[in-house]
Amino acid sequence: TNSLQAQTTEKEQQLAKQYYEVYAEGNEKEFLKVSEQAKQQKLNKNDRQGYYVLCVNEVNYYIKLNNNSKALTLASRLLEEMKDHQDGRFDLLYNAMASIYENRGNYRMARYYNEKAIENLLPNDTVGMVGAYLGMANLEASVHPDETLAYINKLLPLCKSYPSHYNYALTLQALAAFFKNDSELFFETLDQYHIHNRENDIHEDQNDGIMAMLQEAFQGNYQQVLDQIAHSDTYSQNLGHFDMLIQLYRLMGNKDLEIAGLQNKLDAIDSLNANLVYENLNEMNAEMEVAKAQKKAKENSSAQFSMMKLISKLALCATMTQPSQKS
Fold first, then answer.
1. Which of 137, 189, 269, 281 is most buried, by CB atoms within 10 Å?
2. Cα distance between residue 50 and residue 302, in whole Å
3. Which pLDDT value is given to residue 298?
4. CA nearest 114: which of 242, 300, 302, 290?
């Protein structure tokens, strides 16, 4: 029996190692093949939570490939499966869905699903909580940088035990400093970033690239940053590069380029939304469901407020009609 368990454990370890290798390589066919094997392994052990984590990883895989239409299709199917079984990692899935909508420039939907992720966190799941709040911090970095900094301030102590998360949190703090044009905060964060990476032997190419570009920007080397953005994949896979460019133009004091950058971002968002009509109806359906949910919540809130006013009026009437006590 011990020999069989040892063999099983070894097979699981080999499959896990293969899984992470093919995830990183980008070979879609090979990844899906290994992912199916890994999911079946989880189901055979009745580990549905592990199974759902792998399912969400498939969604994230297509987000990484910038195939948001495919990612949304998988996410919608997975959401129905989770609801049918009354279980699942809703927090992880909602976090992934927030990323899809953020990549499409749909801030309202991204914010909605980030909030849903936070609402559905598992009790005592520190890693899940950190991931969900980092997702919200990322969304707000260019829109509401002060909100991002508030999230990061609370998250950094929790991230200490998770070096990669800490690295990402510092990157988001640096981005928020960039969008606030706070050079002092940026260079403080940059020092923390380098110290943390040295102490933990961390090499995150994308985050390193972002930090290097931000440093050039704060040193006034704007043209160099513009050239890097034009020839780099760091921002080319989502709409973030528009926000980066707009802020750069703002720092350069070039109002015409800033306005043109804003228009380019709006055009890109319109194009993505137009393409969606032909690619995938899932997002449109999701938006309708969100609109219904928000309308219902508003109606319930309004009804509760009206009821409170009615109760207050009745209480006031009762007080006014009570006979006065004689001394």
1. 137
2. 41
3. 56
4. 290
The length of the chain is 327
AA letter at 181: N
Yes or no: say if 155 and 137 are a contact pair by the CB < 8 Å rule: yes
Tokens of 48: 């549905």
Q: How many CB atoms lie within 10 A of CB 20?
A: 11
Rounded CA separation 198/294 (Å): 46
In what helix (H) or strand (E) does residue 239 lie, and over which residues does it extend? none
| Burial of 95 (C-beta count, 10 Å sphere; 0-12/13-18/19+) | buried
Residue 265 and residue 105 in contact, taking contact as beta carbons nearer than 8 Å: yes
Residues whose CB falls within 8 Å of the CB of residue 269, separated by 6 or more in sequence, listed in order: 104, 105, 106, 239
Helices (H) and strands (E) in the chain, counts: 15, 0
Q: In the chain, what are the helix, strand and coil shares in percent, each to the nearest 5?
A: 85, 0, 15
Query: What's the token pair of residue 325?
Result: 């006590």
The predicted structure's pLDDT at residue 103: 84
Neighbours of 268 (CB within 10 A): 15
Other Cβ atoms within 10 Å of 91 Cβ, number: 22
The H-assigned helical ranges of 89-144 are 90-103, 107-119, 126-140
Contact 19, 34 (CB under 8 A): yes
pLDDT tens column, 17-68: 999 889 888 789 999 999 999 999 999 999 999 999 999 999 999 998 888 8
Cα–Cα dist 96/71, whole Å: 9
Predicted TM-score of the model (pTM): 0.73
From the list 238, 241, 240, the residue with the least C-alpha distance to 227 is 241
Retrieve residue 252's tokens. 């350069």
CB of 96 closer than 8 Å to CB of 63:
yes
- Report the distance separating Cα 195 and Cα 199, nearest Å: 6
**pLDDT tens digits, 177-213:** 999 999 999 999 999 999 999 999 998 888 999 999 9
